[in-house]
What does this fold into?
Amino acid sequence: MTQKWDIVIVGGGLAGYVAANYLTETSLSVLLIEKGKNIGGRARTNKVNQQYLNIGPHALSKKGKAMTILKDLGISLSGKSPKLDGILIEDNIEYAAPLSPLELFRTSLLNRKERMEWIAVLFKVMRTDTENLAAQTFQQWVMQVGDSKRVQSLLYILGRLATYCHAPEMASAKVVVSNIRNAMGGVLYLDGGWQTIIDQLHNKAISLGVQVQSHTLVKQIDPAQQEDQFKLILSNDEEIHAKYVICTTGPHELHKMVNENYQNSFFTQIKAVRGATLDLALSQLPNPSRLFAMGITDPLYYSVHSNYARLSDDTKSSVLHVFKYHHPDDHIDSTSIKNELEQFLDRLQPGWQQYVITRRFLPNITVNQRLPQLGDEHKLQRSKTEIPGLYIAGDWASSDSILADGAASSGKQAAEEIILNEKEENSANYERRLPTF
Ligand SMILES: Cc1cc2nc3c(=O)[nH]c(=O)nc-3n(C[C@H](O)[C@H](O)[C@H](O)COP(=O)(O)OP(=O)(O)OC[C@H]3O[C@@H](n4cnc5c(N)ncnc54)[C@H](O)[C@@H]3O)c2cc1C
It folds into this structure.
C-alpha cells in the first residue's frame, strides 16, 4: 500500500521541526523524513566521552527570530551569555577587544580619535534603519560609516562574528547589520548544546501526532500529477504520496530532487556560507583566562563555550571551538587550514595537545546555505514555490534572516502558508456546496 500523507517535510533540522510543530495545530497528517541516522541537521550535538560538541561554535541570538519562535513553541532554553572581553590578534600582536565598554577604553588597538569614531559607529549600528540598506553591500556600508582602517576592520570582525559571512563585497548590508545589532543584544551558549532544542521540538511534535522517519533519503519529488498528490521516491525505493511537501534541504539538493520539473535559476546560483571548525574538549585549559579571541585580518575565531554553558558531564573539562571563516572563492586545502587553526590555538592555549579528551576537525562545513546577497529578499518573499503544493524552508529560504533565525522563521512561514491555503480551499469548497436559489 502506498502511504498517503497530507504533508511530508523533507529534513529533520531546525526548519523542519519548527514547521512540524506549527502544523500540529491542524488535523493534517504530517510525516518528517530525515536522511541522517540522527535528527537535528546542523543543530545536532554529538556526545563523545561525556563531552557535548555542537557542530562548530553555536550561539543563539537573544533578540533574534529563532528565540521568539522557540519560546512561542514552549521550548525551554538554559545557558549563559558569553562576555566579549577577549583579545584581537594581528601580526602576532594581541589587543584587548573593544567589544565591551570596559575594553573599549582600555584597548591599545585604537587611538583617541579612532575610539570616538568607533563609539559613534556602534551607535549608528543600533540606530540605522536596516531597511534602507537593502541596496548596499556590507563593504559599501562599512566604507560609508567608517573613516579609519581600524574601525573598518572592527566592523568586518563584527560582521563575521554575527553572520559567519566573510565576503563583505557580496553580502547584503541589510542582513549583516541587522545581525550585528541582534548579536549586540547578547547571545546564549546553551547547556547540553543545540540538540536540546531539537530534542524538545521532536518530542513535542511526536506527542502531537507527527511521524518521524530517520535514516531515509528522499531521492525524488515528482510534482502533483493526479489527485493533487506529490510522489516522493525514497532511498529504499518506497513511494509515498503527499498533498504538500515542505523541503528544508539546501537549494541545490532541492533542485536535484525535482530536477527538470523546476528550472529556478536563482536556486542554482545560490552560494553557501562556509567555514572550517576545530571542535575540542580539553581536560584543562593551559591558560584559563583566555576565553575569547578573533583575528583582525585573519578570519579566525576562538571561544571557550563551556565557560558559560554546561557542555560536559564532568565539571573540570573545557569545550571550545576554533573556527576559520571561508570566502566563497577560497581554495580549501584541509591540511593547511588545520595547521592554521592549531597554530591559532597554540598561541592562546600553549600545550593544549596534552589535554585533549576529544577533537573533531571539519575543513569545509556549510554554516548557512545562502550567502545573503542584494536582491535575494525579492525572490524569497514566500515559502510557496512555482510548483503548487511545494514549499521551501531552511536557513537559506527566509527573505531577511539567516542562520537559526532564517531556519526557524522560514519553517514557521511554510507551515502558516499551508494552513492558510487549506483554509482558503475549505471555504471555497464550502461555498461551492451551498445551495443556489
Ligand atoms: C559551524 C557552524 C556554526 C554555526 N553557528 C551558528 C550560530 O552561532 N548561530 C546560529 O543562529 N546559527 C549557527 N549555525 C547555523 C545553524 O546551525 C543552521 O542555520 C541551522 O541549524 C539550519 O537548520 P536547517 O533546518 O535550515 O538545515 P539543516 O540543519 O541542514 O537541516 C536539513 C536537514 O535535511 C536533511 N536532508 C537533506 N537532504 C535530504 C534528503 N534528500 N532526504 C531527507 N533528508 C534530507 C539533512 O540531513 C538535514 O538534517 C551554525 C552552523 C554551523 C555549521
User: Anything to note?
Assistant: The chain has 13 helices and 19 strands. The first helix runs from residue 14 to 23.
